[in-house]
Design goal:
By secondary structure, this protein is mostly beta strands. The protein has three domains: 425 residues; 177 residues, no CATH class; 92 residues, Immunoglobulins (Immunoglobulin-like, Sandwich). It contains four helices and 60 strands. The protein has a 30-stranded parallel sheet that branches. Strands 10-13-16-20-26-30-34-40-45 form a nine-stranded parallel sheet, with no helix packed on it. Strand 1, helix 2 and strand 2 form a beta-alpha-beta unit. The chain is flat, with a radius of gyration of 30 Å. The N terminus and C terminus are likely disordered.
């Protein structure tokens, strides 16, 4: 195997505006509900339907402004602006001009410069007491021409701050700012919202929909970069995203003669920023690099696409909790000779610190561009270079790293179907990945088409010069294609760097199962040079292709079935069943599992701690004056032991001719039943039992009491 050249992106730092005197806070204020401590000020009112813009509008609810910007112009630090919406949606567009443009150099629907404001949408016009954004949709619309929101300060970042709450920001467009010097005239930041050199930004209960950041096209050199289709934070001391949705936003690199421009973060881009996010949804965002009309390599760089959902760049510290990232897409640019690569189908971290907790990262794709020689695709779900990344209670399902197609030359390598972590050469760089309580399943690293394969792999995980530590995680059914390596993990290091191993993976109390390539003989694990993989307790089951390199501790792993609930499509349920060999593993010190359930003193291997629930439960019921419909549900773990269901019906009404009130009904294998021709206003006690082949009761719903009646009781515990 020929080791593929690793690709760093240090020039990103050189191309982005920086201020040497600016010190970025490194300790994140994790409290999600903390708001800036601004002095309490005045309140202004905005209503697009009835308001009028003037030098005195908005000061009272009876004379609202028509545009949000008119109220911003009058407001002072500490003031609050209340904005009216409507059931059908009230739309606020660019007002035509703004004094803020002379400072920012670019028009925006809403612009805040050197002020600390709170702006809330979702009010009903004429009723300004409390907002309801769901009922009163409030829309900031860039109309495909203007940026939605611009927040800016220069000399004193603490002078500027914004809390934006209860809006939909859509169709914003951010491109190069012609009044600025250098690359800022070419680079597009934050089509929905761009905040730079600000003290505190809070975005709460906001949807960013179909916004675009676009780099400028150029006939020579590199194309402009597109960064943060929805939202860009550059040099923001403390930013918070709370209950924010990013849908169908795009970061687009500009086309170039030498190479295409980078695209960085279809949803979110950060640079030298401290960011906390909670309750975030990223769905269908795209980061697509620009194309090159020539060679595709310029200044040692290519047209690369970073982070379909988000890209965190130099000096950023990011913590995201309670996140869903699905169907996001990063793509490298096309070229004549050498295409661009894709890095992080959902999330990309570079020279940054990124922590992701309680997240679902599924069905995202990183795909290299096309040229005579194809290039890399790294990390279908998450990719980090020279970064520290922590993943806790994260599901990575069905992500795809798809190498670029080379027409007559190189096949683009694919590295890390789910996760890629690597360190560029240099002792001052760090690449560390910690995974705890993660499920990594059904991901793929697929090398692209072409004449010559440079290798690649790591269906689940790829590491280069990296330190990887895994605790209580489950890896299953990840794949690679031909001429690639490590359907589970591919671990590489640069052999020219002397000393102790530069690439290590320690995997404790975890499950690794059911890995196979698309053709026979692909290795499940490859560790080259002095790199090594160490296992400490767990399950290693049904992995084809063998291993190569320094692999130790496999003798501590059970070779038995983990008994997943419902692996693969359509459920992708990798919780373990009652017959799992992963149960009662060993004491690990990890207190909870992927669902937050408490682990036993002998914790189960993998991400899930088996939880015995009631195997037989009522599902639905419906009562009329003379009938009762019931249905029940059996835990799949126990279903194979059931031969029939019996219903015990105790009729408290008129007794049968033989004096009995209780009858037993054989329901067979049906899981619903209707009792008919019952007496009106009579009481019925019903129990469903699951019966085994020897006639014993495996499980029971317990007794449930019903009254046949045509009168509905309106009580707190009774639903009509």
């Amino acid at each position: 195997m020929r080791k593929q050249e690793m690709h760093g992106h240090a020039s990103v730092c050189q191309h982005l505006l920086s201020v040497s005197a600016l010190v970025i806070a490194l300790l994140l204020l994790w409290a999600a509900n903390t708001q800036p401590a601004y002095a309490q000020g005045s309140t202004y009112y905005v209503d697009a339907a009835s308001g009028q813009d003037s030098s005195s509008c908005g000061g009272s609810s009876g004379t609202p402004c028509k545009s949000i910007q008119a109220a911003v112009q009058q407001a002072k630090s500490g003031d609050t602006i209340r904005v009216a919406g409507s059931a059908g949606g009230t739309v606020y567009t660019y007002p035509g001009s703004s004094s803020c443009e002379s400072e920012t150099g670019a028009p925006a629907v809403l612009c805040v410069f050197k002020k600390q404001l709170t702006i809330r949408g979702g009010y009903q016009a004429g009723r300004w007491d409390s907002p309801d954004p769901a009922a009163n949709l409030t829309i900031i619309d860039g109309q495909g021409r203007y940026r939605g929101v611009f927040v800016l300060s220069y000399n004193d970042p603490t002078a500027t701050g914004l809390t934006l709450e209860g809006f939909t920001v859509r169709n914003g467009y951010g491109s190069g700012i012609g009044k600025r010097p250098g690359d800022d005239a070419l680079f597009g930041f934050g089509g929905g919202m761009f905040a730079e050199y600000a003290g505190s930004i809070v975005v709460r209960n906001v949807t960013f929909d179909s916004n675009t950041a676009k780099g400028i096209d150029r006939s020579s050199g590199y194309g402009g970069y597109g960064s943060g289709g929805a939202l860009s934070f550059r040099h923001v001391n403390n930013a918070q995203l709370l209950d924010v949705r990013f849908v169908k936003n795009k970061a687009l690199g500009g086309n170039g003669g030498g190479r295409g421009g980078y695209s960085l973060g279809g949803g979110v881009f950060t640079y030298a920023t401290t960011l906390y996010g909670n309750g975030l949804v990223f769905d269908g965002n795209q980061s697509i690099a620009g194309n090159a009309s020539g060679n595709g390599v310029d200044g040692g760089q290519r047209g690369d696409g970073f982070g379909g959902a988000a890209s965190f760049q130099h000096g950023s510290t990011v913590l995201f909790e309670n996140v869903t990232a699905t169907n996001n897409y990063a793509r490298g640019g096309d070229a004549v000779e050498n295409s661009g690569g894709a890095f992080g189908g959902a999330f990309k971290s570079e020279h940054a610190t990124f922590t992701l907790r309680d997240a679902n990262v599924s069905f995202n794709t990183a795909q290299g561009g096309n040229a005579r020689n194809g290039w890399l695709s790294n990390g279908g779900g998450v990719e980090g270079i020279d970064s520290t990344m922590v993943l806790e209670r994260v599901s990575l399902i069905g992500n795809l790293a798809l190498g670029a197609n080379g027409t007559t030359g190189d096949r683009g390598g694919a590295n890390g179907g789910a996760v890629n972590v690597n360190r560029s050469n240099g002792a001052d760089h760090v690449a560390r990945l910690t995974m705890t309580n993660c499920i990594v399943a059904d991901n793929s690293a697929i090398i692209g088409a072409g004449a010559k394969s440079l290798g690649g792999g790591g269906g689940a995980v790829y590491g280069y010069n990296a330190t990887i530590v895994v605790e209580h995680s489950t890896f299953a059914r990840n794949t690679t294609n031909d001429t690639s390596y490590g359907t589970f993990i591919l671990l590489l290091e640069n052999s020219s760097e002397a000393g102790t191993p530069r690439a290590t993976a320690t995997i404790r109390n975890s499950i690794v199962s059911d890995h196979a390539g698309t053709v026979g003989g692909i290795l499940a694990i490859l560790a080259n040079n002095s790199s090594g993989v160490l296992f400490e307790n767990g399950l290693y089951f049904n992995n084809s292709g063998g291993t190569y390199g320094s692999i130790t501790g496999l003798n501590t792993m059970k070779n038995q079935d983990p008994d997943y609930k419902s692996p693969g499509a359509p459920d992708y349920d990798y919780h373990i069943g009652r017959n799992s060999a992963a149960r009662d593993g060993s004491s690990s010190g990890i207190p909870v599992d992927i669902d937050g359930d408490t682990r036993d003193s002998r914790a189960d291997f993998g991400a899930d701690e088996y939880s015995a629930t009631d195997p037989l439960t009522y599902h639905t019921s419906n009562v009329t004056e003379d009938s009762i419909f019931i249905s029940w549900q059996m835990d799949p773990d126990f279903q194979q032991d059931v031969v029939r269901y019996e219903i015990t019906h105790d009729d408290q009404g008129v007794a049968a001719s033989d004096g009995t009130t209780v009858r037993v009904i054989d329901a067979g294998m049906n899981t619903s039943y209707t009792l008919e021709n019952l007496d009106k206003y009579s009481l019925h006690i019903i129990t469903v039992n699951a019966i085994t082949s020897d006639g014993s009761i495996l499980a029971s719903t317990g007794s449930n009491t019903y009254l046949t009646t045509d009168t509905f009781l309106f009580l707190s515990a009774v639903k009509r």
